[in-house]
Amino acid sequence: MKHAVSILALTSILGLPALVLAHGDVEPKHGGVVAIAKDIDYELVAKPDTVTIYVEDHGKAVDTKSATAKVTMLTGSNKTMANLAPVGENKLEAKGKFDAKEGTKIIAIVTFAGKPASTVRFEIKSEAHEQHSHADKEQTAYGMAGDPAKVTRTIKLSMTDNMRFTPDNLTIKQGEMVKFIITNQGKILHEMVIGTLKDLQEHAEMMRKMPDMQHDDPNMVRIKPSSTGEILWTFNKPGHFDFACLQPGHSEAGMLGKLNVVSSGS
């Protein structure tokens, strides 16, 4: 009998290090990797011939009969895409040939009928690293999502089709909970993404491969022409960080900005 191989078993066959597959206090129930988006738990199990996503809400199975998902796997320069369909109870599944290993980044766009799509990201890392997903309150090197009830400062920015932010160099005190109000004054789609330079470069590479990728992460907002959006962000770590528009070609044209977070003791 041909046996399907889970991510954990696959690492043993390929001689890879053990993988850290849980996120926070959410333990995988099916030997996969867990990510959280909009307070919903998604567990992805990748096998050589099958990709499955299990959906739960605080430990309870979510009926997926009205749901669909599109998965993109990025392993180095290789990209594999698949459409997942309901297969009973809280599962979505696709058949095919899949290569998931250490370093693979997996993006799933999950849509339930009548609801906005959720973008869920998984990354397979070795045991030496913490498994990252994009939970709403995840601590990052550049801060964490803010609470609208605790805003201490509001900063207004504009974006234009000459590929510029105004202002593009901001100084923020450590501990400030900032509401960014961003207006797209142009005639094309723009976005603002906060992060380290390395994070932004990695995300820009994903955007080049998947320009229609949807966003719902708290450190970014995509804004249509003549519209306004917001980011709520707590800058609880000092340092020099960045923001950019990662629509293909925009950051390369100069649509970048600097965030200088000064220590509360300075």
Kindly estimate the percentage of residues that lie in beta strands according to DSSP: 35-45%
Q: Over the alpha carbons, how many angstroms does the gyration radius reach?
A: 19 Å
Basic shape: globular
Number of helices: 2
- Structural class comes to mainly beta
CATH architecture of the largest domain: Sandwich
Which parts are unreliable, with pLDDT below 50 for 5 consecutive residues or more? 1-24, 127-136
SSE string, helices as H and strands as E: HEEEEEEEEEEEEEEEHEEEE
Report the helical percentage: under 10%
Number of domains: 2
CATH topology of the largest domain: Immunoglobulin-like
Instruction: Give the name of the CATH superfamily of the largest domain.
Output: Cupredoxins -  blue copper proteins
Top-tier CATH class of the largest domain? Mainly Beta
- Number of E-state strands: 19
Distance between the termini: 66 Å
Residue-averaged pLDDT: 82
Q: Tell me about the biggest sheet?
A: 9 strands, antiparallel
